[in-house]
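I am going through a labmate's work and have reached the protein record below. What it holds is a sequence and that sequence's fold in token form. Please read both lines and tell me whether the tokens look consistent with the sequence. Do not assume that whoever made the record got everything right. Thanks in advance; the entry in question is below.
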Amino acid sequence: MLNERTYSWVAAAFLTCLGINVHSAPVSIPNGYTITRLPAQTINPSALAISPNAQYPGRIYMAEMGNPVGGGPNGDEAIYYLDSQGDVVPFAITGIGEPFGIKFDTMGNFGNKLYAVSGSTSEVFRIEPNGVSSVFATFPPLPGPFGRYDPFDIAFAPNGPYGGSMYVAALFKGIIKIDPDGSFRTFAVTPGVLPGAQGLAFDPTGGFGGGLFTLNFEDNTVLAVNSSGGMSVFTNINGLVGANQDITRLAFDPYGAFGNDLFVIAQGNESGAASDQIIRIDENSFASIFASGFDFDTSASGYMTFDTDGSMLITESTGLGSGGSVGNLYRISPVPVPATAYLFASALAALASLRRKATYFLSRPSCELV
């Protein structure tokens, strides 16, 4: 039986043979996928979350920094959602400073609510279905040159070895484990000059061991974090990214349309270069370039998540904090595989099976009855 990834490869090859190119410039994606730009150009999105909770008015939520159309009192930051008509609707105009990461609690241990981290105040906010926010956890000032935790991303652990807790990647502190009562402690510290991390995600399918993963942007390594906080290098992608690029965000495909693989954003330091990439990593730690031609501008301007229809959503913010620029929200989806491609793939599998059986038959002793 051919799996989804094999079908996707065969389908992509089939579409290429037909001369069908399904992506558009300037962003380059593989054949077999389509890319569309959603209406979020009206804002400058810096983080994404998909709501599993019907009590919330929208499904796709976006945090923004440097809002050109209004916003909160603290740096014009706000959280929005897309309504059923695709319009951008203000949701939490609360002044959550530098909302680098937002995430819904899907495990139920934190009330199935939306949470946001504030980089400027080193706080975690809980946001109710009516858009009202409250401080859930406050990280204290840090001694030394960094001065603050600078939280960057959130991940909710499944019940089990990781305790069903909330985990926060803090750039200047490490990975913080937060319990449902708001108490917290340092869980892990990345190696290098900076102790912290940026991206954070749990493997939802078990193909990567079911654990927690983060990024060390200093040496562009993807790190596996065990339930005791120990870290090991899962892969190093320095060979794929440029000298001025850092890996900043990561997300797993939980639905299978992208092979249940791990995807990482590689972001450069030059605005307008349109040379930033999305890296695809499989369970054997093999890494390859999946998409290129983005301009993520800063480490906080590119974010990925997967929608419930299996598609990938990516933010591309430009001129973060400028108060007058707008960004992009892209959706990358696999092209529906034509029936002819499935038949072609099935025929290849059947031929391979017949070849194995024929080889086995011919290799048996001639005197043996079959």
